[in-house]
Every structure is written in C-alpha cells, then in structure tokens.
Amino acid sequence: MESEKQREMSNKASESFPMNAGDGPNSYTLNSSYQRGGLNIVKEMIDEAISEKLDIHVLSTSELFSIADLGCSTGPNTFTVVQNIIDAVKLKFQSHCIEFQVFFNDHVSNDFNTLFKLLPSSRTYFAGGQPGSFHGRLFPKASLHFVHSSYALHWLSVVPNEVVNESSPAYNKGRIHYGNAAKEVIDAYSAQFAKDFEAFLQARAQELVPGGLMALLLPGIPDDTPPSQSPFVRLFELMGLSLADMTRMRLVSEAQLDSFNLPVYNASLEELKALIGKNGRFSIERMEPVFRYAPTAETCTIHLRAGGMERVFSEYFGSEIMDEFFDRFAKKVAESSILADLTEQNSAELFVLLQRKSSTS
C-alpha cells in the first residue's frame, strides 16, 4: 500500500518543484546556458515558421499580438526567446503598427521576483506573469497568437500512481525512473505523459486563435530507441545509483529510495505525432530532432541541479545531503560513457511547430 509520504509526493510532483531560484551559484539564472544553446539552434526554425505560416488575419482589429512563454523560469533565456519572436513578427508585418503583450508562465512557486527584476528595461512589449500549471487553462479563449515552451513539457503533472503503489505490478522498487525498469513501469510513465500532453493540447487549442502558432522544444528520445539506450534517461539512472550508494552509507533509507520516482518522461517523435493527431486541433508544420553538443560532466551536473532536480530531491530526501548527492552523480557521469555516447543516432531534443486549425472544434 502507498504511504502518506508516497501519496503526497505523487500529488505534488513537479507542481511544487521549480528551477533553482535567485541568482546564486546554483541558480537557474546563472546555469541555463545549455538550454540557451538549444534555443539558439531552433531560432531559425521559429523565424521561418513566422515568416511562412503566420497570417495577418490572426491579428485582432486592435493589432495586438499576444505571446505566452510556458515554463519560463526566472530568465534570462525567456527574454531572448520572446524578443526573437517579436523581431520575427515585426519583420513579417512591417507595414503594420503592432503592439505586443507577453505573458510569462510557470508554477506558482516559481521565483517571479527574480524574473521581473531581470526584465529588460529596453523591452518594447507589455509584460505580465501568469502563474499556474500549463496542463490546464491559463488564458481566455482565442487570446494568444504565439505560444512557446522549451525544456518544460517532459515534466509530468504527477508521478504515476502505479509506480509508488506496492500492490501494483508497476511498483518501481529500488529505482527512481523507468530506464531499466519493467515494461509495466515504462507503460505507466508513458500513459501519464499521454494524459498530460493531451491536457496541454486541449488547453492551448482553446487559448490560441485559429492560425496561431505554437513552438515546442523538449528533451526526448529517437523513435524505436529503448529508454535504457537513451543517454538522457541513463543520466537519471545514475542519479538512482548515487542514491543507492547513499543508502548503503545510511544517508538515505531504503524506504525513501523505494518510494521515490522522478516525474519526468522523455517522449519520442512518434509518440508526439500520434498524440497530436489524436487531439486533432493542430496541424504539424515541422517536427524533427535537434542534435546538441555533449556537455562536460560538470556542466551536465550543474545544469540538471539548477534545472529543477535539486528542488525535487531536496524536498524528499532533505537539503543537507544535496552537495553529497550531486558530487556523487557528477563522478558517475564523468566515469561513464554517457556523454561520449551522445550522437545523432541515440539522443534527441525534439522541436515541434504546430498551427491551430481554423476549425472551431
């Protein structure tokens, strides 16, 4: 049976675990250059989409263009993305006098104070925060023209109930993720992602104007690749091994290890395509893997730590062991072949460009 702690963790999941706040040495603000590199790669794809796919008829009579960045964190990447979108729209509709409003969204526990403090003083748009989960509605119907989200959709709304239930065939004892787990565990994660992604698409279908665009960038795996062969997923396995070491040192109890699972899922393009098709409200304008350079073990560790992982682990295991945990994880990454194995064949960040269909269905 589930313990009270298990139920609490499953219900909270990523809702209460934002990126590291502030601007200190372990903050997301100072440790998000890897994510920025991915955004730089897809910038041209977004520019092309706006140039070729966006129609002037999406604008209202007031010529107000609304943009939402979902999972914005604290900056500075979100400001770069937003400005790139605005520049591309201005270039597309240069004969029109367009005003821009931008909504920065993340969970209610996100450090919005740091976000607003870092807002560019030279910005040419009206800015506002919109706290809440993007797995549900955030904006009025047909109020957005462009939606962007990067490095956020792999976070699940909840840990799958089955993997923390001792009476379930999918109980994931001794593991914190699904990489080398039983098929029942993988299926439970996949089903939760499908549920979450459908909720995300349903909400955005309501909020985007017909003809509006949505650009998504998320960590994934290539089609027909077992999770155990994905370097991204294998990194989480090393986190589990680090915790197992600390269990033997009695810094972490076996009960804690057995009841903890990461609320993260790496989908494939095939999975995304099927879910988008099932939803039926968007046309796929572009969908492809994006190859990235392999970071060093140190860079990999600090970016994962700042990018939400520290908050997840410290909430469950305590903040006092976080330095020990991430030191062990960094050593395991350095000793492994994971980063060297990052190739176009076995790793993927997935770029997806969708357009809201004109149908009101």
Written overview of the protein:
The structure is a single chain. With 361 residues, this protein is α/β, with parallel strands linked by helices. It has one domain (2-356): Rossmann fold (3-Layer(aba) Sandwich). Helices cover 41% and strands 17% of the residues. The protein has 10 helices and 8 strands. Strands 1, 2, 3, 4, 5, 6, 7 and 8 form an 8-stranded mixed sheet that branches. Helix 5 crosses helix 8 (269-279). The chain is globular and about 65 Å long. The model is unreliable at 10-14 (pLDDT under 50).
The geometry reads as globular
Level-2 CATH architecture: 3-Layer(aba) Sandwich
Strand percentage lies at: 15-25%
Radius of gyration: 20 Å
Q: Considering the protein shown, what is the CATH homologous superfamily?
A: Vaccinia Virus protein VP39
How many domains comprise the coordinates?
1
InterPro entries: MeTrfase_7 (IPR005299), MeTrfase_capping (IPR042086), SAM-dependent_MTases_sf (IPR029063)
GO molecular function, one term: metal ion binding
Keywords: Magnesium, Metal-binding
Pfam families: Methyltransf_7 (PF03492)
Write the topology of this structure.
Layout: H1 4-12, H2 33-53, E1 64-70, H3 77-92, E2 99-106, H4 112-117, E3 126-131, E4 144-150, H5 183-207, E5 208-221, H6 231-248, H7 254-259, E6 267-268, H8 269-279, E7 282-290, H9 297-317, H10 322-335, E8 348-356
Parallel strand pairs: 1-2, 1-4, 2-3, 4-5, 5-6
Antiparallel strand pairs: 5-8, 7-8
